[in-house]
């Protein structure tokens, strides 16, 4: 394991990267989680970042914070408004705070913010918080830079929620209604839920209510973030287990009697998954299942599989504890996913991993 640089060494490296220099050639990828925090001006993003850091430190975690501030019209440097709100962490060796100016860049981040966050992750921090300038509808660069994006809202936004729905509302992995002790928190939550209902196929991001100045609700938010870290996502005790084996067949009517009559297996049910264009018959096999897959359309993936390879083993499905976190970790490590997490047979969330990334086997990862 590469030792973490000293604060002085890290500060020097950060200056090089911030000014457009390359990341160190020997920098590890790191296993920390990059957390993006965005939202409208005045939502309390800096205060929430400081509260998250406090709770993370209480749990023994190390944190780097990249606070992107507007550029000063006089000097071109960061105004340092965010840094002022984080003074409680000055002198804590487990917290490294770096303010940087946007330097005229749009999208809520500076041009080198992403590289700086990767530097801190590679340096060994458990969490890297990347806080944007107050963002609006089209300032959504954070979604491409962070592993997890938190959109911060406050009660009483009213039409402001409508104004940002086509931008930030679509990139949120989590919502934080900050200053939730104010009137209108319930209404804001209802507005978020109403907008999320417009995209029913999307997995609903959780909504947390926080009061950053006294830490209310912050522990629950940090617990959720811990579950999304690469280490947590890949722990065997996070729920990994074989869920089912998928077998492609030309006809369910012709294939089922072997399993039910001759093998004596119990038929659990049948259904059609329209988005995959497949008819599914589910059979009990101890703690796991067998799924027989019949194409419902000639242009489905199962139809193409049968045409190319004939009937047989199609995929193996593994049950995981947090599919979104696992999928994100696999993408970061370079694995090829065939789809984003979505609902499938039985209502579970699933994603397929390309055989080229898994030794020639098509893997389905599911969260029931």
Please characterize this protein's 3D structure.
Helices cover 30% and strands 24% of the residues. It is an alpha/beta fold. It folds into two domains: 7-228, Rossmann fold (3-Layer(aba) Sandwich), CATH 3.40.50; 236-367, 2,3-Dihydroxybiphenyl 1,2-Dioxygenase, domain 1 (Roll), CATH 3.10.180.10. The strands form two sheets. An eight-stranded mixed beta sheet has the order 9-10-11-8-12-15-14-13. The protein has a seven-stranded parallel beta sheet with strand order 3-2-4-1-5-6-7, with helices on both faces. Strand 10 and strand 11 form a beta hairpin. Helix 1 packs antiparallel against helix 4 (113-122) and helix 2 (45-58) packs across helix 9. The mean pLDDT is 84.
Please outline the helices and strands.
Elements: H1 7-18, E1 33-39, H2 45-58, E2 63-69, H3 81-84, E3 95-101, H4 113-122, E4 127-131, H5 142-145, E5 148-153, H6 159-164, H7 168-171, E6 174-177, H8 185-196, E7 207-209, H9 218-227, H10 230-234, E8 241-248, H11 252-262, E9 267-273, E10 278-285, E11 288-295, H12 301-309, E12 312-319, H13 323-332, E13 342-343, E14 349-353, E15 363-367
Parallel strand pairs: 1-4, 1-5, 2-3, 2-4, 5-6, 6-7, 8-11, 12-15
Antiparallel strand pairs: 8-12, 9-10, 10-11, 13-14, 14-15
Helix pairs in contact: 1-4, 2-9
């Amino acid at each position: 394991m590469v030792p973490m640089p000293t604060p002085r060494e890290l500060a020097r490296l950060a200056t090089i990267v911030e000014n457009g220099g390359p990341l160190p050639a020997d920098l590890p990828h790191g296993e920390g989680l990059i957390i993006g925090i965005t939202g409208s001006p005045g939502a309390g993003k800096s205060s929430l970042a400081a509260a998250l850091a406090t709770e993370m430190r209480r749990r023994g975690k190390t944190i780097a914070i990249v606070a992107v501030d507007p550029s000063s019209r006089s000097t071109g440097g960061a105004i340092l408004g965010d840094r002022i709100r984080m003074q409680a962490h000055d002198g804590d060796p487990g917290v490294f705070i770096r303010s940087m100016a946007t330097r005229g860049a749009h999208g809520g981040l500076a041009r080198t913010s992403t590289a700086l966050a990767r530097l801190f992750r590679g340096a060994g921090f458990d969490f890297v918080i990347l806080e944007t300038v107050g963002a609006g509808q089209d300032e959504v660069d954070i979604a491409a830079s962070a592993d997890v994006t938190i959109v911060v809202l406050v009660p009483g936004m009213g039409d402001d929620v409508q104004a940002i729905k086509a931008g930030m509302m679509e990139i949120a992995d989590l919502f934080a209604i900050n200053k939730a002790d104010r009137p209108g928190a319930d209404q804001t939550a209802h507005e978020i839920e109403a907008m999320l209902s417009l995209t029913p196929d999307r997995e609903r991001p959780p909504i947390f209510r926080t009061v950053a100045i006294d830490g209310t609700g912050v522990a629950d938010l940090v617990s959720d973030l811990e579950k999304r870290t690469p280490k947590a996502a890949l722990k065997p005790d996070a729920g990994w287990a074989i869920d089912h084996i998928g077998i492609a067949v030309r006809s369910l009517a012709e294939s089922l009697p072997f399993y039910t009559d001759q093998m004596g297996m119990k038929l659990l049910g049948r259904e059609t998954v329209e988005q995959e264009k497949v008819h599914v018959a589910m059979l009990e096999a101890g703690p796991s299942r067998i799924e027989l897959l019949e194409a419902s359309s000639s242009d489905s993936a199962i139809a193409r599989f049968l045409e190319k390879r004939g009937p047989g083993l199609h995929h193996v499905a593994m049950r995981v504890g947090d599919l979104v976190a696992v999928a994100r970790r696999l993408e970061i490590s370079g694995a090829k996913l065939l789809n984003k997490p979505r609902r499938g047979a039985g209502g579970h969330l699933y994603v397929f991993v390309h055989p080229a990334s898994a030794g020639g086997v098509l893997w389905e990862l599911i969260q029931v």
